[in-house]
Each structure stands twice: as structure tokens, then as C-alpha cells.
Sequence to fold (159 residues):
Amino acid sequence: MQSLDHAYRLYGPALQTTARRVLGSDDDASDCVHDVLVRYLRRPEAYRPERGELRTYLIVAVRNEAISRVRRERRHAELERASLDGRTETYVLDVPDSVDVARLRRALDALPGDERAALDLAYNRGLTHTEIAARLGVPLGTIKSRLARAVRRLGEAMR
Fold:
């Protein structure tokens, strides 16, 4: 922990300012700086001195992390808005029975927005789990969990 304190003393103010400019919040900036410094301390080999000063490397890392957080928040807000607005994706349903089609549509509409979005990207747009994770800005494991939950819920609804 001493090295984390040392890094905060040396670079904290510049890193905090950089993050605050992008994020607009002191608390969010502090979280961002902390995460970047912890990541650096866990993998110091990621910094290559021949490419520039450590201070510059950390400032760029904080800026990139802050921008990623803003983008991720925007995507989440957009998905949430779509879910609250009642907008649903158009699913191509290959189910011969019209009663089953109606049940399946109701089950799809009942899914949380994040699960519905993952299903849409996987089944309607043919994206891989990795591509879905990249597009939505969430970890791969989260996408796999969302898809598994959604498929399980749909199966339960169709029983």
C-alpha cells in the first residue's frame, strides 16, 4: 500500500484534474484515478519508459479510463431509456403456433432491457458474445450471464 500512497502523492493532483475534466465529478474522478493506479501497481510492466515519462503514461491512462466510463454510462442510460420507453427489438420468430408466438412475445417483452438487448444482438444480429460485450461496454462474463438468464426465463415462460 505504500507504493499506492506514494503514487497518489506524486501524481494524484494531475490525475484527479484530468479525470474531473472528463467526468465532471470529484467522486467519479477519485474512483477513476484509484482504479488506474491500482491497475498500474498490479501490472507495472505495462508502462514502458522508452515511450515516455510515467506521469504522462498515467495521465493518458486516466483520461482513457474516464472516457470509457462516460461512454459506458451513456450506453447504459440509452439501454435503460429504451427499456423504460417500452421500445422493443423486432424479433424474427420461427414458431408455427400463433399461441406460442404470443406467449414468446410477452416473455420477450417481460425481459429486463439489458437481457433483451443482449438477445437481440446475439440472435437477430448474429454477434458473438465477445462482440456483444465490446458493443455494450460490459465484461464478457456479464454478457454470458445475461444471455443465460434470458434464455432460462424464456424457457420458463414457455413451459
